[in-house]
Amino acid sequence: MTKPMGSKCNLDCSYCFYLEKEHLYPGAPSFRMTPAVLEAYVRDYIAAQPAPVVSFAWQGGEPTLAGLDFFRRVVELQTRHAQGKRIENALQTNGTLLDDEWCAFLRQHNFLVGISIDGPAPLHDAYRVDKGGKPSFERVMQGLNLLKKHGVEFNTLTTVHRKNSKHALEVYRFLRSIGSGYLQFIPIVERNAAAHTTNGLWLAPPPGHEDAAGLDAQVTEWSVRPADYGAFLCEIFDEWIQRDVGKVFVQQFDAALANWVGQPAGVCIFSENCGSALAVEHNGDVYSCDHYVYERYKLGNLLNSSLPDLVDSVAQQEFGKAKSATLPRYCRECSVRFACHGECPKHRFLRTPQGEDGLNYLCAGYKKFFRHIDSPMRTMGALLGMGRPPADIMAMPRAQWLPTGLRQ
Length: 408
Fold this sequence. Notes:
The protein is of the alpha/beta class. The chain is built from 14 helices and 13 strands. The radius of gyration is 21 Å and the shape is globular.
């Protein structure tokens, strides 16, 4: 995940964990990625990929703040260093700065655009406001409509927080109504530190690696409750399984089906180990993950080290393997471990019923969800095994679904 503007953003979303990262770079003259860093990154990233297709992910902060000329330069560098490989670009944006010129460029160069939107206006604007505290929904929709006008491919990223988590079907039906066929639901789980750290960060660092500011941290008022998150996923799944399989793709459902049939989940949080979703900051600093942008997880800088060396470093390999190595016994013995794998280590700050550290805050919600979907997942897996599309399940009576039998 590349941050061409670091944590800089034109919005001031209450729940954004990345806005505070600007304090890691005090006195920075600019948060725009320099030409030298950009070229080093594009060149090294392409050269390091063994596959014929290379995918870039531009995030933030708000990456469009870097300006259209910056991304024109991105395309030029990608073309120069392509080495015969096909280049793909994904841009995650709040959409508020898009105009006709931006959208024409994105369409011309086949960018996939992720629009951050949390549901209809009252739910979206609950936390997604600008620097003046004003709502952003109408501006996001203007940007989305421009993407449609220019035929730009888009998907949606929706955070699930304290307010919209109780309105699952309203959120899902809204996203479907605006034409989103690919949906990501990201649970908001953050903790306020008991005191600010010396570098000005106010959110608690990841569990198990906490300084004094992380002790006695409290979950923020906007974080989703575990039970609400489980219910949110279940309610959407129940509508999806009846009418939208093969038409609407939900990241959690795709990953679950992959795990049910023994294939890679395709998303780090539901994989046995992690470590492949590194973050590149505006100045070339490379971190183990964008949820671990802290000094102790900085692997190095692109101007001093090659990207492959940083990815393959001992520190990064140990970071990735720690996900499975630190699972508490309660998780290792869980019947849905194969589907969850403890989810994101960032969320593992509870204790198990036996008093062991490392239980995921969202555990109860995930258990509810994965047990709820077991029968249809087994049925869709069987359809795949017969060479039939999973969408065929929609024509089957529930009585024909395979019986529940979670793995032990």
